[in-house]
């Protein structure tokens, strides 16, 4: 026992915050499970559990790009949609071959992450070489382009394998895929996906949140993360100490995209039908709002902000038409409050040595 | 190590060189010849020649706007030179990037401090140790034994380097929250962490009071003696430059107007003219 307390004493503040973040998420999961088994949660709340997990992963992964790397990304929902659709394709194809649910789920998440990472490489390689806010512009375009691409994609699966058709002139239909009688139509152009088996559960969501947190936090506290933050703080100085700027920007961006892809795959597997319009510009901005409100570079802040801001609109349903207005007012109040020097000083006293004991020592 | 100087056996060092005697039998760490850069029509630096010995402390001085920092930016390839060559330890640095130059052995500090201000003091030094740690991003994420081993070594090395300036107690502070003088010292530590063979210091004493400057002078000599590296510094504080620099190069309007020891520089009419203007009737 003494050894443990001694270990905690010599631990750095950032490490303590990391462990507290994990502990908080585990605790929240346990509480929700307890409530659920006691039958205290109604259907509207249980329906929100998996999407909340997805959006927590989205916010944490976007924080890696925006807060840690310091590059603005306006198309994070684009990576989510790549993950969602490729994950669903993987899941339904494997379902056709008769694979078990767990295998399908895990492989769908892996495929979703891999495809989103690939998209991240394609976007990142040319753009991250440049200086300036080009990433914001390109990711904004990426989000819109991927939506249109998915709208004109026809995918089916049968005994002969995967059939993919790109409906570039709008004249192709699902029957053009040439599927056999037993074949399943997976993506039907603008109609999206229908008849998807819902494999996602809250437990899987929790596991994915934990994986995302471990990946992001461990990355940040490693050599790689320090290089990424050095680039954010001062690019020229980072170059002058021998850091390969493009490489580390790309690592952070691709990891962020891959995690968004996994979250998207989970999101897709939670719905029986899926349309690419879900992942539009508004969705990207929504995730960015979670990140900004939780604090740039602050991982536990992203988790808390996402949960609060996801639940808030639902909790405000009784205000009906005034719902979005109240939501906006709450956002503005939170931002005013968190930028208030006195309030920050008060918070600083309440949570001693919050910023790495930097201010007082 | 110390080879005895034998006449005719070494690479002949040009007569214009100001290398101290102890470095004479070794090849110089830095050789610039006919270095120059144009910004549009402006010749910011022209025909810049400089040779620096293995363990020399050299000074680069000149009036404001003479092109001193531009020379640093040329040496570290922040700007690619328009003309001339830079040999670092005998290797041509043409076409290299700032990152590659650091790996080849040049580290620098900046005139306007460029710390990673949101990172802790220790992490700033660890960023400097980046290329001496060798584990991949995946090892870091999975926290394999290699991660723990190398992070422990980096932690110890960072504190050791910080102790040079007695800053080890500040390790957990945010770099941006340090007082000005400590930020300058931290920049030097971070540069040293990259294990350079040539250290460029851009106005290290700027904003320091006389006692801090005196301490800095001792520390610069201490760094040279400990790490056995060459140091080239830009400085306006003449006490510092004349006190510790073994060779001094004076720049004015992008051209070298004098080179030599501190006595030679102080006696040079061209230098006096550049700093004080031409005397009437002379």
**Major sheet size, sense and barrel closure of chain A:** 3 strands, antiparallel
Shape of chain B: globular
Terminal Cα span of chain B: 51 Å
Element pattern of chain A in H and E:
HHHHHHEEEHHHHHHHH
- Count the domains of chain A: 1
The poorly predicted ranges of chain B are 1-16
Taken as a percent bin, the fraction of beta residues of chain B is 15-25%
- Over the alpha carbons, how many angstroms does the gyration radius of chain B reach? 20 Å
Protein described:
The complex is a heterodimer of chains A (361) and B (282). Chain A contains 14 helices and 3 strands. Chain A is mainly α and 361 residues long. A 3-stranded antiparallel β-sheet of chain A has the order 2-1-3. The radius of gyration of chain A is 22 Å and the shape is globular. Chain A starts with a helix and ends in an 11-residue tail after the last helix. In chain B, the strands form 2 sheets. In chain B, strands 6-7-8-3-9-10 form a 6-stranded mixed β-sheet, with helices on both faces. Chain B folds into 2 domains: 170 residues, P-loop containing nucleotide triphosphate hydrolases (Rossmann fold, 3-Layer(aba) Sandwich); 78 residues, no CATH class. Chain B is of the alpha/beta class and 282 residues long. In chain B, 45% of the residues are buried. Chain B contains 10 helices and 10 strands. The longest helix of chain B has 19 residues. Chains A and B meet through helix 7, helix 8, helix 9 and helix 10 of A and helix 2, helix 3, helix 4, helix 5 and helix 6 of B.
Summarize the structure.
Chain A is mainly α.
Main attributes?
heterodimer; A: mainly alpha; ABC transporter involved in vitamin B12 uptake, BtuC; three-stranded antiparallel β-sheet; 14 helices; disordered C terminus; B: 282 residues; alpha/beta; Rossmann fold; six-stranded mixed β-sheet; 36% helix
